[in-house]
UniProtKB/TrEMBL annotation:
It comes from the Eukaryota. Residues 1-21 are annotated as: Disordered. InterPro entries: 3'-5'_exonuclease_dom (IPR002562), KH_dom (IPR004087), KH_dom_type_1 (IPR004088), KH_dom_type_1_sf (IPR036612), RNaseH-like_sf (IPR012337), RNaseH_sf (IPR036397). PANTHER family: EGALITARIAN, ISOFORM B. Residues 272-340 form the K Homology domain. The keyword Ligase does not apply. It comes from Hevea brasiliensis (Para rubber tree). Pfam families: DNA_pol_A_exo1, KH_1. Keywords: RNA-binding. This is 3'-5' exonuclease domain-containing protein. Residues 36-225 form the 3'-5' exonuclease domain. The lineage of its organism: Eukaryota, Viridiplantae, Streptophyta, Embryophyta, Tracheophyta.
Length: 343
């Protein structure tokens, strides 16, 4: 690990051999005290992170904080959680040079980045720093897949929040009341993450968003079957691309994982999954969505596909569809039909 002084620390939970299953995490008994490093120069980061290799593959917790985090917002902090330390990468003070040094790791297949809901983080990294986030384990997607594995059906737009995931006793079983404190501050001052030096609250909040991710990852890996693992890899890759609009249909992005041979050999092959981006006539998005979302909800209920719009952050006038090819084409047809009804 890189050596750098730190006056901050936090606790990272670890999974013991006698894991209590669905019992809530005993935070003090099952955690290690680790330093939190504030990073403004690449030399303060671990060498194995800066120089990814197949011989030293890593699994790290990952998140980003910023002001209006999207293509036109400002990415302020990038959090990296290792088993023995947390690094808060200061994109404001370190600037392009620091983020450029992190680019190989964020795009590497040799470093698994565990994150909860990657879409906006990926968008910000792509448009602000030219980084194509790759090889992620999205805990929000993994949670839904485990629910499906265990026979529970998910309603459209019923995505688990990070606070909800932490509260689930199967994964942590802890409350995260401090998150609401930060949300209140963000509503009062959207520039909260821009201020320097970082306050103790900012350091604590940034660390809290990643320090449980490795623990949750190991819990989820015990539950995910091979079929769900493939879906997770594909959907995580497609979610990374979701809002990263470009002119070459993502040809310069890493390829989406193919269906593995072991799933083909089992029969009942999973269907290829894709991302489709539909243009909506300017000013007509409200009609596509419908009053209180009624129109788009009815389409989501009719198709086994995820449908996203940019919302207030944009991109405007586009609909993003992720799912099996046939279901995506069905959703496209229904959305186009809805657009035709406008004229």
């Amino acid at each position: 690990m890189a050596s750098s002084s730190s006056s901050h620390d936090t606790r990272i939970p670890f999974l013991s051999d006698s894991d209590p299953g669905a019992k809530p995490l005993d935070h003090e008994a099952q955690s290690s005290l680790v330093p939190v490093h504030l990073v403004t120069e690449a030399s303060q980061l671990p060498a194995e992170f800066l120089n990814p290799s197949p011989e030293r593959q890593l699994i790290i917790g990952f998140d980003c904080e910023g002001v209006d985090l999207c293509c036109h917002g400002t990415l302020c902090i990038m959090q990296l959680a290792f088993p023995d330390a947390i690094f808060l990468v200061d994109a404001i003070q370190g600037g392009d040079m620091l983020m450029k040094a992190c680019k190989p790791a964020l795009e590497s297949a040799y470093i698994t980045k565990i994150i909860h809901d990657c879409k906006r983080d990926s968008e910000a990294l792509y448009f602000q720093f030219g980084i194509k986030l790759h090889n992620i384990f999205d805990t929000q997607i993994a949670y839904s897949l485990i629910e499906e594995q265990e026979g529970r059906t998910r309603l459209p737009d019923d995505y688990i929040s990070f606070v909800g995931l932490l509260a689930d006793p199967r994964y942590c079983g802890i409350s995260y009341l401090e998150k609401e404190e930060v949300r209140v501050l963000l509503r009062q001052d959207p520039n909260f993450w821009m201020y320097r030096p970082l306050s103790n609250m900012m350091i604590r909040a940034a660390s809290d968003d990643v320090r449980f991710l490795l623990y949750i990852y190991h819990k989820m890996m015990k539950k995910l079957n091979p079929r769900s693992l493939w879906y997770l890899a594909v959907r995580s890759a497609l979610h990374c691309r979701c809002f990263c609009i470009n002119d070459n249909d993502f040809a310069d992005w890493p390829s989406v994982p193919p269906i593995p041979d072991n799933l083909i050999a089992e029969g009942n092959n999973p269907e290829e999954e894709i991302l489709s981006v539909l243009d909506v006539p300017p000013g007509k998005m409200g009609r596509v969505i419908g009053r209180r979302g009624a129109s788009i909800v009815s389409i989501k209920e009719s198709c086994n596909a995820e449908i996203f719009t940019g919302g207030a952050k944009g991109p405007p006038d586009k609909v993003f569809i992720i799912g099996p090819v046939k279901q995506v084409r069905k959703a496209e047809a229904m959305l186009r039909g809805r657009m035709l009804d406008m004229f």
